[in-house]
Amino acid sequence: MATEESLQEIYTRFSWKKTVFILVSLFLLFLLVLISVTLGTASIGIKEAFAGILSNLFPSSFQVSETTIAIIWKLRLPRICMAIAAGTGLAVAGVTMQNILRNPLASPYTLGIASGAGFGAALAIVTGAGVVGVNSISLSDNYLIIVNSFFFAMLPALAVLGLTKYKEATHGTLVLAGVAMMYLFSSGLSLLQYFGGEEEVHAIVHWLFGSLAKSNWFNTGIVTLITLISIIPLMIWSWDFNALSAGDEVAEGLGVNVERIRIGGMMISSLITASAVCFLGTIGFIGLVAPHITRIVIGTDHRFLIPSSALVGSIILLASDSVARTILSPLVLPVGIITSLLGVPLFLYLIVSRRRNYW
């Protein structure tokens, strides 16, 4: 009886720790949203920003200038919501990829998704979009790049899926096939840059940096919708992911269809990543670092790990974008540069400082 009580106490303590972590993360995200709304070339205080957000919902109760409302609702809030949606998606995709590939270094780009998206965008810029400069991309050209990028981002995942039909979909097979796709599209991207003109190469490089500058309510809504819909099956499979963490043999013994879960997780992760990458460009380290931070704090139970990683990913990306908009103001740096600069030392710190084998 004493042993049962102690186990119950341990389980309750760990459950409470996970709940507290999620609540603290939600509070930090809310606070970061308020701070981020105030940042920019136009000075807006926190009270004014809060009133500006509510004035569009309750115009009779909050009086704010039209300029402030336009800045908040047309420029800053779409960017903030895109950072939350993309950070959530990349982190969730990272959790899934690390589990199904059984590799702590796996990320949403392991299967060549980023390389495929970069190749698609470069192909549109050099041969199809008629781009003559980053600041002169027309609306139709911009969406041609987005569609092209999304299509080629999904292509490596489909190619890997096709290869698994000829060989069992083990984590080793997926990793090797993904590496092959990555090098294939990276070579194609380099070839396009070699033959492209100076302004076209500049546009390609700028796209590859990763930026939230072109965020609006339309593309934010697309990324948010795809991310939310994709998270549903991943949460349903959370018990299967837990079993898969113990090894393929254990999972199969518990009745898990390992190949179906692995292929399904791979396709959903690819879809989430492609939806974010096609609008924003390459944003690294979110899908790699956020799951590790969360796993260290709350463990490997995917029922809590998936939503917690989503919160951490959105916090990291939103914080990185806030730094990108202020560190050299009025110049706005691409957020992909900031995530890499912050991600490398943070990831090294996690490796050096960990005291237990959380993986």
UniProtKB/TrEMBL annotation:
UniProt cross-references to PANTHER family, sorted A to Z: ABC TRANSPORTER PERMEASE PROTEIN MJ0876-RELATED, FERRIC ENTEROBACTIN TRANSPORT SYSTEM PERMEASE PROTEIN
Keyword Phosphoprotein on entry: no
Family label: Belongs to the binding-protein-dependent transport system permease family. FecCD subfamily.
Presence of keyword Cell inner membrane: no
Name of this chain's protein: ABC-type Fe(3+)-siderophore transport system permease component
Organism of provenance: Methanohalarchaeum thermophilum
Topology of the protein relative to the lipid bilayer: Multi-pass membrane protein
GO cellular component, one term: plasma membrane
Biological process according to GO: siderophore-iron import into cell
InterPro entries, sorted: ABC_BtuC-like (IPR037294), ABC_transptr_permease_BtuC (IPR000522)
